[in-house]
Amino acid sequence: MPATRRSSTRPLPRLAWLVPCMTLLFAAPPYHEASAQSPRARPRPANPAEVKRLDSRFEEVQSEFVRETTSLLTSYEQLGQFDRVKAILEAFVKLDPKNDQLKAKIAELDERMLQAGEFEMRLQPGESWQAVGAVQKDRPIRIRVSGDYRFQASGSVTADGVTGDDPQSGIVSQIPFGAVMGVIIPANQSADAKPPRPFLVGSTFNRNAERDGVLHLRTNIPTGTKCTGRLDLLVSGPQQ
């Protein structure tokens, strides 16, 4: 089933809240000027006209910075480079960590990044691990699963029930039988290395990636089980 992507084109608002950040940035005098003055030196009388001229120049610099930064972020956004916009805003949060408006904007960008990279795919129950896409550590992953399926099982079972733990092609005991589960395989993992433990995806999954790698999904039933039905997925985060 071909993947269908969705995008968002809502423009970035004016970044007037950069002004307090720049105030923090320019408030302190340059280090070499501050250290050059002796603690016992008497300050020179300030020339009001000179102070006014410097204040005016500061306002021009601040205004120009806000204008250029707004233009830069808007250009990045128009190219779909939401991660670059987020990185710049996170730098401003370090200057002004109590700025809730900046944090809200970053959260909005996270949502837009998920929406911009949203795609649909179909998971075949009973088949082996299916690669979804590359993920990055601490980046959000969102998966919505709809549909159902029936399976036909054969084989013998003892009085102890179905036992064992085979993440590669069998049942993972810590995850509900038949549920959708996932695993992130590091790109540089050797063939003989022990694979990471799978995790429950279920019908709804919304969590940051625990490592860099490729996200794989399958249903928690033995590989090769005959199944009918379908599971449709709406996925955000992984890069195909």
Can you describe this structure in just a few lines?
About 30% of the residues lie in helices and about 25% in strands. With about 240 residues, it is α+β, with helices and mostly antiparallel strands. Strands 1-8-3-6 form a four-stranded antiparallel sheet. The chain has a four-stranded antiparallel sheet with strand order 2-7-4-5, with no helix packed on it.
Question: Which characteristics define this entry?
Answer:
elongated; single chain; four-stranded antiparallel β-sheet; 32% helix; 240 residues
Strand order of the largest sheet: 1-8-3-6
State the fourth-level CATH superfamily of the largest domain.
Galactose-binding lectin
> Which regions contain 5 or more consecutive residues with pLDDT less than 50?
6-14, 30-34
Largest sheet: 4 strands, antiparallel
Return the CATH class of the largest domain.
Answer: Mainly Beta
Description:
By secondary structure, the chain is an alpha+beta fold. It folds into two domains: 99 residues, no CATH class; 118 residues, Galactose-binding lectin (Jelly Rolls, Sandwich). It is 32% helix and 23% strand. It is built from five helices and eight strands, in the order αααααββββββββ. A four-stranded antiparallel beta sheet has the order 1-8-3-6. A four-stranded antiparallel beta sheet has the order 2-7-4-5, with no helix packed on it. The radius of gyration is 27 Å and the shape is elongated. The two termini are 14 Å apart.
